[in-house]
Structures
1.
Amino acid sequence: MFGKQTYIARRNELRRRMPKGGIVVLIGNGEAPRNYFDNAYGFRQDSTFLYYFGLQNANLVGVIDLDNERDILFGDDYTVDDIIWMGPQPSVKELAESVGVGESAPFVAARDCVQAAMRGGRKVHYLVPYRGEGVLLMSKLTGIKTSEHYNHYSTDLAINVAAMREVKSAEEIEEMERAFEIGYAMHTTAMRLTKPGVGERMIAGAMEGVTHQLGDGVSFHSIVSQHGETLHNHSHDGVCESGRLLLVDAGGETVNNYCSDHTRTFPVSGKFSPLQRDIYNVVLHAHDEVLRIAKPGMYTDLHNASYKALAEGLIGLGLMRGNAEEAVAAGAVRLFMPHGLGHGLGMDVHDCEAMGERGMADYGAMLARADEIDTCIIRERWRLRPGTVLTDEPGIYFIPAYIEQWKAEKRCEEFINYSKLESLYNFGGIRIEDDLLITESGNTMLGGDKHIPVTVEEIEAFMAEN
């Protein structure tokens, strides 16, 4: 947790940005049972609640009055029965004071507060809940049917929260540098362990252990697979085989829940084959091209620049043909990289996407205001700002079913050399990912001069030495 002045300043800044005549209601997360109530998954606080109220405790609701400098924390004090199992716990009043909130009340009073605002004709601003329990709680607070929540969520709140959370302060950047250190330890651990005969599960488990030693666990379920052509391959059932590539996409969270997200692809044997080296270097060139040009105001241009670099490399290898720019314009590169270049990163591994294009809400109201939305919640309108952190993660994947579909449909035949792709159906995929901080004049990679081995030479040397 940061100092209380950080949270006071954030709430006041949100108050300044939001239209008057209402309140903001932010619900914290509750415990999520694994198989019965007292056996819960590791607790993870809602990121937006954490951003404005800073508290890692379950079952809290925060209210920010937009017309007065008044913030209220709702929750229930622990009973003696709880303390027997948990030890002494701070009261809700003490929790509120620790983050500069002047008022506190029992959890049940949150409904009265929200209902009173609604009766007075005040707007109740809330974000779309992403957990079932949150949907039910928001329905109880507002009286709005669960099926109607998406028609009443606050576009103003979503936009302003995303705009604030995306631009990182100096203390947040320090936290994300700590997250980089966790990511560095995770990925170098994976490289040390990888060799023929080692199970993917052993590598994934060792990496997760690192995150608990240095922080608060993984920032998402780790991808550790020799089938890198499956973009989100969460199976760890394989056994490393000589001649294969292992794709590791993984990150960790600090104790304050700031995330890292890196991908490395490296040879199980410790040595790239000539073909693996050639394709890897095409991806690395696309990755480095983004590093070279990224600056404020960009995103779509970065995505297209990575596509062009991939097209040029694939043409050079004979897997594509024609003009690179024309191939990008025709959409031909999507066969090899069917995803965007990157995403926002911060307290969520896909920062703020719970309230935007990746959320459950109909975001038509956001699209109607697209010209004023420059945050990561709508990527086609994203305009990077100094303080933004984003991932740079181009890739090349040989997905047999996808290639066969395109081939049958005769898509982009003038650009794709289908006759050479069938021999690559067992190749897998390559992705390279690092986390960039946008600065006033350009960008810098988190970690500074320290980086996870990334060139062919660095990876081979590291695996040989370790």
2.
Amino acid sequence: MRHVTVQKNYAVQLLQEEVLHFPTLKTILQVEDILINAETTMSREALKRKLGGRIMHPTLNIILHYLEDSGKIYIGEKGITWIYNPSQKLKTAIRKGVEH
């Protein structure tokens, strides 16, 4: 019998570790709002400035990993970009699309 290891997402791993401070729902929603309304890719430092500097770096990392694991953001070399689109039309177009 073959043993398959399942990789846990970052948020699940955090629940099993000792974390100094978990973010509140209010903070998560604030980060989402800033990223949704950002006109371009945003750096972590720019995001912290938009939040008024009231967030600890580890707490921001928890939020960003959660949003990345849930498919809402992309974290790349140039920064953080909101990618989630709940449009039903988009989902239908992707499902019916032809891959070349």
3.
Amino acid sequence: MAICQRLTFVAVNLVFFLPAFAQEPDIRSFAGEAWYGVYMNGEKAGFSSSVFEVADSGTVKVVEDVTFRLRMSGVKQDMRVVTTREFAADGTLTLIESSVDDTGGKKEFRVTVEGKTMTVRTRVGGNETVTTAPRPQESLADTLALERFVRSGPAVGASVTYRMYEPMYSTEIEGTSWVVSITERLLDGTPTKVFEIKSVLAPLGVEQTSFVAEDGTTLEDSLAGTITLRLEPKEIAMNVDYANDVIVANAAKLDKPLPDARTRESVTLDIHGPLAKEHFVEDGRQSFKQTESTVRFTGKRIAADAVKSVPLPITDTALLEWTKPSMFVQSDSPELAAKAKEIVGEETDALTVSSKLSEWVYRNVRSTYSARLTNSLEVLDTMEGDCTEHSMLFIGLARAAGIPAREVAGLIYAASPDPGFYFHQWATVWVGQWIDVDPTFNQPIADATHIKLAEGDLLEQARLLPVIGRLTIEVVE
């Protein structure tokens, strides 16, 4: 069984949205570094450092470096994400460099800002792309916004806004922070005001809670109650022993196995936890009903002979948007196109094409646990991975074959390591209607136990952050 861990990278970037240094009138006094322990649902999972540098010329460099050390069903996994931002002496943004180093290699993102234009270069899966767009609005003032806000001594209810361009999502994210409470703590033996700050990151709707000392030092950041950064001495922050098994820790366990999970006609579940309406993805296979105390989920099996398949090619322009290449789904690459043609041959029935691609991925991709920022080309090269790798390769092949396809994330029932619902990724494709396909389990139509909570790219899947590891599920007989 393979479980999706791709959302870790979303959390890594978003948790650093708020700055971590105290501001003084002389910007050179910012220079220094801070270390944080990284925790997932209360368990130590890694460490990070934040470095603020000011050159003699007045230019500023801010470096965020985070390392995750996790287990995935006993398998050790390391991930490192480094983001560098550079600002001119007048505070204008000039450069963003971001890299993700994982078991699949390094992915690189570089944004160069000149005048009113930015140039974005990405290298993912050995595929390099270059695009241009209007410059983002972000400046050094946004990086320092929270410190300035706290140092001004705001009252409860006061707020501030700021922006951050994220090349991995190809979008500029806006944040709004406001003071929830002000308390006094002893820090190093000195009474110090500590501000509890709530933040919302648009367009995600993800909440972040921060505790910031009156000098602007961030003591703790918690993103959606899932990822927490805690200020610690360097040697304590770096003390990580791979104790956090993210697959087991984040699952919604059951007290007994679910009979006939893969073949049952339907399943009814009561889900407890912080589900919101944006997680209620309803279609012909699943539905949600909100009550005062729980969310009732109903999933059912869709028979293949009930699907009205269409012949290829598909000509609907709205649907064809989901055949286009993206940063992580390089469906225009010759390698993916050739492999899709090899698998499909002359077949033109959309459902049959989808089923052939799904079965080929299932039979040829070796199942391993992997914490990585996945893309279709990389999986075609390595031919191994967990549910994320299976689904991303399938989506790349499906789009290359002319079938609209997009990512899906949520939960699925599995009997091991313990009976329960585990976070998982699969795909949805249009073959005359949208159907869910799970190549990890060789399901041309996903079974009734798949609980779809998000559809779309990495940014859309970020909406799952508030629920990871925080759901409990009961089977309704």
